[in-house]
Design a protein that fits this description.
Layout (H helix, E strand, L loop, with lengths): L8 E4 L5 H12 L3 E6 L2 H13 L6 E5 L5 H9 L10 E4 L17 H28 L2 E6 L12 H20 L5 E8 L6 H5 L4 H5 L10 H12 L9 E4 L15
Parallel strand pairs: 1-2, 1-4, 2-3, 4-5, 5-6, 6-7
């Protein structure tokens, strides 16, 4: 059963598409104030205008930010209006994967740095900027969007799997560090979700990007946003530590039944 939460300030990274966009919609339609963060400012502005047009009452900001850059994060946080600086809910959603190369063939300069800087350092950096204020107020909720790949490793996914394993560890440590506070931490581990994720992974090759979703009804971004909102709407004394969600017909990263 959902409990409606409203009038919260929700900051979402990677909000220009996929799970981030869906989170923005469900939280805003319930009367919360949304800070949309991402690199594609044109998409953020379009989503901002769409949310405002729905007239749910909450404020919406669009902030261009690259979570792989501390300078970019600092600029975004410093430029927030005073009435939007005290973040109630942080959704660390920005992330990516590049290629399917084996360890011996990985582009150790570009692919490795891009994935680790975004998926791992980005989560740490954004959290580090926002957490002190949550501790000061003794209130807040942090969602880290990881993946089943953080615990179900597969060949040719070494960088991505390692990055999500790091997010899992980060979430666990963070939860232990704030155990004496009213701050809650949930690690979100989706399975196969049909988003632009594969399009980025395969460098815009639409044919390759479609293959992971062939023959199976994959999860949608709305499914994951629904899970996140459910957790956020629990009574204050309830903390759901981990959500692991897969489509029916998926049992692990590679154990998938596909209809012919």
């Amino acid at each position: 059963m959902f409990r409606k939460i409203s009038n919260k300030i929700v900051l979402i990274t990677g909000a220009s598409s996929g799970i981030g966009e869906s989170c923005a919609k469900i939280f805003h339609q319930n009367g919360n104030h949304i800070i949309l963060c991402g690199r594609r400012v044109d998409r953020l502005n379009k989503l901002r205008d769409q949310l405002i047009a729905n007239n749910s009452g909450g404020k919406v900001l669009a902030c261009q930010v690259d979570v792989s850059s501390m300078e970019s994060i600092d600029k975004m946080i410093n430029e927030l209006p005073e009435d939007m600086k005290s973040i109630d809910i942080l959704i660390n959603n920005a992330g990516l994967s590049l290629g399917m190369d084996s360890v011996s063939e990985i582009d150790a300069k570009n692919d490795l740095d891009s994935v680790i800087d975004t998926n791992v350092k980005g989560v740490f950096r954004v959290t580090r900027k926002i957490l002190p204020n949550m501790i000061q107020r003794n209130s807040g909720y942090i969602f880290n969007v990881s993946s089943i790949a953080g615990s179900m490793f597969y060949p040719n996914g070494s960088i991505y799997c390692a990055s999500k394993a790091a997010v899992n560890a980060f979430s666990d440590v963070l939860r232990k560090e704030v155990v004496s506070t009213k701050i809650r931490v949930t690690n979100v581990c989706p399975g196969l979700v049909e988003t632009e994720f594969s399009l980025v992974r395969f460098n815009g090759d639409a044919d390759k990007a479609k293959k992971p979703y062939n023959g199976i009804v994959a999860l949608t971004p709305d499914d994951i946003a629904d899970n996140i909102y459910y957790c956020a709407s629990r009574p204050d004394h309830v903390q759901i530590t981990t959500i692991e969600t897969m489509a029916n017909n998926q049992a692990s990263t590679r154990d998938i039944y596909r209809e012919q």
